[in-house]
Amino acid sequence: MYNKKKASTTIFIILCIGLVSCNFSSTSSINQDLLAIINSLQKEYIVLNDNETFHDLFIRGQAKYKVVRDFELINGVADEIPVLMYHHLLLSSENNFKGNSAILDVETFFEQMEILFKSGYTTVTLLEFEKWLSGEIELPKKSVSITFDDGYLSNYIYAYPILKNFNFKASQFLITNTAKEESEPFDPNVLQYLTWEDIVSTLDVFEYSNHTHDLHHLENNKGFMISKPIDYVYEDTLENMSLTNCKYFAYPYGHYNDEVLDILESVGIKMAFTVKSGPVKKGDSPLELNRYGIFPSTSISKFNYMINNQ
Ligand SMILES: [Zn+2]
Q1: Overall number of domains in the chain
Q2: How much distance in Å is there from the Cα of 174 to the middle of ligand 1?
């Protein structure tokens, strides 16, 4: 968020002379459990049939998120659920963009996921969240929704193996214009996006939703969602939804207005997430849902406050 693509690209150009190559096994200060989890990532080689694309496989794979699971409710039910918002992740040793609030250390992310796991949290899918919000189902008292914005490759390289290790589910809000067919090697010094091949490979952990097709830009500090003509926003949203086959949305930069709300409602978006801090309460307005942004400045005590404040 906050136009970090441009900022990071600029920093990359400045720093590219002194690139540090990433070697996980030589990172001495990293927690050994975390190191083992990251190194366990085996990228799958997927063979496509004739005339089939990775995007076709994605549409088929995403269907598994259209089922609501059974939950144990013996410890009580949730009246409020925190939705956590993450962006880009890098190991502390390879983060040459210190000061960028959208980049969280992998080590911190791991610590937070370990807290959720040890505290007995259930990570719910967006369909389960939607059914809970509308009062159709109950969810366990300790429920949480984990979300990532923008669709960065780092969320495959780092978040995916960590979430899988804890048997967690999470959601990614994709800028679908950035998703191409073929994957490329991870380079921590460049801001890279997930490809459809990467996305297919991670469907056992992640579901994928909408973060506009190509409106993740700022114009005079206003997101394109609120600065572009209504027809333009409408068409982009339809394109976004057709590529994800999903009816959930996150506002780039948290920017929206009444006209945007009307558009999302008219195209059938069921839930939309803001960047307004706070838990979601049962019955909240589905197109203006709170999320807790997790930044490098978020202390562990603040994180504990966010997840316990329910
Ligand atoms: Zn974003």
Answers
A1: 1
A2: 8
Query: What is the average per-residue pLDDT within 17-30?
Result: 44
The model's pLDDT over 259-295, given as tens digits with 9 standing for 90+, comes to 999 999 999 999 999 999 999 999 999 999 999 999 9
Residue 164's φ and ψ, nearest 5 degrees, are -65, -40
pTM as predicted: 0.89
- Residue 109: give the domain boundaries: 4-308
User: Cα(151) to centroid of ligand 1, in Å?
Assistant: 9
Mean pLDDT of 121-136: 97
Give me the CATH number covering residue 257. 3.20.20.370
Q: How far is the CA of 257 from the centre of ligand 1 (A)?
A: 17
**Which tokens sit at 174?**
């994709």
Residue type for 108, please?
Answer: T
How would you label 223-238 residue by residue, b for 16+ Cβ within 10 Å and e otherwise? Answer: bbbbbbeeeebbebbe
pLDDT above 90: percentage of residues in the chain: 81
CB of 73 within 8 A of CB of 295?
no
Q: 74 CA distance to ligand 1 centroid (A)?
A: 37
CB 186 within 8 A of CB 206: no
